[in-house]
Amino acid sequence: MLLIGVVLTVVAYIASIFISKKIRISFLNPILVSTLIIIGIIHVTPLSYDTYADGGSFIVKILGPLVVVLAVPLYNNKHILKKYYKPISVGILTGVISSAISVVALSWLMRLEQDIILSLLPKSITTPMAIEVAEIIGGIKELTVVFVVITGMFGASIGPLVFDVFKIRNDTAKGMALGAGAHGVGTAKAVEISDQAGAASSLSMILCGVTTILLSIIVMKMM
Q: At the N or C end, where does the chain have fewer CB atoms within 10 A?
């Protein structure tokens, strides 16, 4: 049963990459397309979600260790990251704070319940870290995973359009924005732009995640 979920996920993702390259529409990124493929297969075949989830949960478990791979582009572009360490630091703090404020403000306007708000707060960091934050602050980790996936897909899709509208040409700036706003999915998009953008996005994603976790611990201890 484990093998079914893993194979289906891998095949769906390979197919989604092919489709995305052929159609070349920003919103049809591989994560979204592969998700739709898997949902469609589960809907039209006898395959149940629980059966698929056995393999899917295994993939989620190995996401944490795989984050270490991001150290490669970081090391290869360390000279560029050292050069821009001040704007990078400001960008990370701005990304974390603005994300938290926007969640709280919009949740208040929409009168969402507290557990949903707490599940939304870590939406902009990578899944393994987001799950830890949700557990620390009392959110619902299953909801957090959904919010993280949606945020990543939307950020990676809309990012290139934002860069074009505001005429952002610096690859480091692009990478920082994608990593801070769209975590792993944004980093995958940044790698497509350049190694420099991928390195900046990796650093941004990791530091935003660590900063969010530390702030969550501090806030919970103060409450």
A: C
Q: Tell me if 215 sits within 8 A of 93, measured CB to CB.
A: no
CA-atom Rg of the chain in angstroms: 18
User: Exposed, middle or buried, 23 (CB in 10 Å: 0-12/13-18/19+)?
Assistant: exposed
pLDDT for 64 equals 65
The answer to whether residues 54 and 7 touch, using CB atoms and an 8 Å cutoff, is: no
For 78-124, the DSSP string reads: HHHHHHTHHHHHHHHHHHHHHHHHHHHHHHHHTT--HHHHHHHTTTT
Measured CA to CA, the distance from residue 139 to residue 116 in angstroms comes to: 7
CB 78 within 8 A of CB 197: no
**Residue 113 token pair:** 């319940």
Phi, psi (degrees; rounded to nearest 5) at 125: -115, 165
Higher-scoring residue by pLDDT: 15, 68: 15
Record the tokens describing residue 29, joined without a space.
């990124």
Q: Is 117 exposed, middle or buried (0-12, 13-18, 19+ CB in 10 A)?
A: middle
Q: Give the whole-angstrom CA distance, residue 76 versus residue 102.
A: 34
Burial of 139 (0-12, 13-18, 19+ CB in 10 A): buried
Write the DSSP symbol of residue 223: -
Mean pLDDT of all residues belonging to the chain: 84
Biggest CA–CA distance in the chain, Å, is: 55
**The predicted structure's pLDDT at residue 151:** 92
Tell me the HSE value of 176 on the side-chain side, using a 13 A CA sphere.
Answer: 21
